[in-house]
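Researcher: Here's the sequence for the chain we discussed earlier.
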Amino acid sequence: MKKFLALACFTGLLVTSCSDDDTVMEEEMTPQEPIVYTSGTADFSNYVALGNSLTAGFSDAALFRAGQEASYPNMLAQNFALAGGGEFTIPFMADDLGGATLGGQPILGNRLILSFASGSPAPVPVSGQGSTEISNRLSGPFNNMGVPGAKSYHLLAPGYGSVAGVPQGTANPYYARFASAEDATVLGDAAAQNPTFFSLWIGNNDVLGYVTAGGAGVDQTGNLDPSTYGGSDISDPMVLGGAITQILTTMTANGAKGVMANLPDVTSIPFLNTVPHNPVPLDQATADLLNGAYAAYNQALLAFSTNQNPLGTPLISPEEAQKRTISFEAGSSNPVVLLDEDLTDLTAVSPALINMRQATEEDLLVLTSQTIIGTLANPNDPTSINGVAVPLADQWVLTPEEQETANTALVAYNQIIAGLASQFDVALVDANSLLVELGTTGFTLADGSVVTADFGTGGGFSLDGVHPSPRGYAILATAFTEAINEKYGSNLPEVNPLAFTGLYLE
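Model: Thanks. This is the structure I predict for it:
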């Protein structure tokens, strides 16, 4: 009897368990209601993207088909399609190499790949000749109007897409491929499509050229004539503000809504945070030799910081003399020697007292400086080692003073952008904070992996150290999506970064 009761109890539990399982199975098999995506107060039926290389999908130092497909506007367009968005056309390059010709002559280089030929990974151009011919103008219109290299005022410039102007440097080869006419403007071609929604991310190149050139350009603040600017110059904030005002006025004239982004801190990109300030290895004999060669320079600096010099009065402070003193030691971490235009010019007293010093942790060496440090300035002189016996030129290092110049411009730009976003009632993406987060804590993805700004391994940036990787663009696309949802009441889904690669393979 007891056995029976025990069996009965077991059977009851089994029945109960089976009944519960049936309930669970029924719940699991109950189809979920499909998500209905809406555009809120926005209209995504005709979306046009305006901007520069970041909008075009530039990556690994080139524009190529796969990169264009992984552009953040194309990701947004795929989201928009869930809520009434229409076709999104792209002015595709001819292949995935990225190179291009003009009249059969190469003018644009191929994309970079990671090569292990030297024994350690290094970015090198992929082999082959790109089949994109600039003079073969594409027939538009195109929804992605991102033009690599464009500054804010370039979007308003007639002839910026002139094929005839490309050899003279007065036109942009990327825009020349798909401009509607020789005298067309990027803004005009975008507005002619009568978009219902637009994105705008412009202004990066108004300061980025200065930064990537190691501060070799000119801060044009106070100069309102952009026709006099050089490619590496910083644009006057009023010039940038005027250009963006005209763009927003034109794009919103027929009631289109939009989203725009502010500008990230360009000094935080891997291009400026990969090469260490102290990469020079020396043995004791070489260190002694160099210290002997710089002894006269150091002694002169000391003399000119006191009254003990031919002029009888100090020309520099003791602090500057110490800053300029050059000293090497045996080991693997000697700082490079560089030119610094912000030091006191002593060459009128002695041509040998050039404005040089050794780098500190505050100096940012550009990524491309790794190709020059340790090479010979004069192939016939084995002692003319760049960064050691020969100081690095201004273009290879962004000094703290130059960083401050760039940051001042950036702060002014972002204040203007924030004000204009409010004035024209468009959504605003805080790309600046986003890139800071990427460079500090990184982004943790659904699988537990972390995307950072570390060069080559972080997954957020491509091999040029300036432009995002596909995964980085996906993170940006999510930020744009969130800003759009918040502003217009849409419910578009986030873009999954795991659906995109951290680096392209060959």
